Amino acid sequence: MLQVKAAPGLVLLTVGIATFLSSLNSSIVNTVLPVIKSSLHLSLTESAWVVLMYLLVLSVLLLPVGRLSDLWGRRRIFLIGFILFAAACVLSGMSGNLWELLTGRAVLAIGGAMLLSVGPALITTTFAPEKRGFALGMQALMTYLGLTVGPLAGGALTELWGWQSVFYSSIPLAVVGFVLALVVVSPQSHSQGKANLDSASTLLYVVAMVSVVFLFNSQIIESYQTLAIVLAGFAFVVTTWLFVRKQKRIQVPLIDVSLFQVRNFGFGTAGAIFNYLCLFLALFLLPMYMADILHLSPAKVGLWLTIMPLFMMISAPITGALSDKMGSRLFSTAGMLAGTLGLGCFAILQNDARAIGFWMTSGLVLTGLGTGLFAAPNNAAIMRAAPFNKQGMASGTLATARYVGMMAGITVGSALFTTIERHISAANSTAAFSNAFTWVMWVGAAFGLVGMLCASLMKR
Fold first, then answer.
1. Non-local CB neighbours of 42 within 8 Å, separated by 6+ positions
2. What is the pLDDT of residues 401-452, one digit of tens each?
3. Which CATH superfamily is domain 1-195 in?
4. Beta carbons of 117 and 65 less than 8 angstroms apart
5. pTM for this entry
6. Which of these, 380, 351, 329, 357, lies nearest to 442 by C-alpha position?
């Protein structure tokens, strides 16, 4: 078989394609979600599951798949990831109802977990220590590039060929990534030691994650909602307690809970959850607001949403470099403050109709700038706080925290919005939507203040 030996640039390109595909998929679906909601006749809660399914499956599989790659070989996992990703794009594009689309999104997340969990390890084992920072920085840049391109591409493709085309558009890139991985990734790219995957811990972790998401999105089962809440809540409490207890007792835990006793790791991880909660709360509801209240086309929605990741892409590398000299706490705290002010701008939209453009632009700029200021310094502080022999576990925990925050943002946004809209007194559905949107943004800003407190409590 053709094999290019010692080609770190091509390995970086392959990992970059995998990273780009995952972030592109997240941003592109958020942009066209109002169109999918209308086309498949979904409620707001049901449409939330289109995004949640991907994040949920991705979150529960990142750590276990990372461990499995040490057992089965990273190259094999990486190749299967590209295959599943391409197949899932076909399934998602061919969906005719919610359940078919959710199935496609779940398979897409399995492929995404395989790509994302293996990518950093491939970079680390391919590049010399003095070049790893550059390589990992380029991978982060591909994440922001995917988030930037997604809204523009999603809006344009949807107007030209329908929402199904946003899934089909990823297939050629997945094929290119597969071919590159087949050629340039070494078959020997796996751990030299014996990896352990505790099946009981994995099962408890999966059940706990699924239970908490279902707990706050039980509206999807209208007839048995009370029973669903009770069962999901009970399952979450029991499995979380058993999981934490087991992690303290086993030699190779899935998540080392003792790391959270380190001040910067604990507060930094909590801050990351709140940061992504605020970001995705806005990303989930803003396209709905733009489409339903402002009556913007998918292309215009995509154009507006490009502002946010563009400022992330500009600010993240600069603050990451500055934080090496000035410390992380200042930038992390300032980032959470900017994100909180951004949500406040979105909350003011309804009350100042003459200046909607100003408040919308300000909110998108501040939210994007806030995440850019926060992410790189906070990540660096977390990784510096973890012992050298637990860097891999710390990295996996940090990635999981990001996706937990994303799920929390969509869960809180959809559940709270649906509850407020249902009980609010308004002259018509448009007014009810606007009022509920305003309240949810203020609640998001409150979460932002909590995140800012977490960032300020970190050591310099």
1. 36, 50, 98
2. 888 888 888 888 888 888 887 777 655 677 788 888 889 999 999 999 999 9
3. MFS general substrate transporter like domains (1.20.1250.20)
4. yes
5. 0.78
6. 351
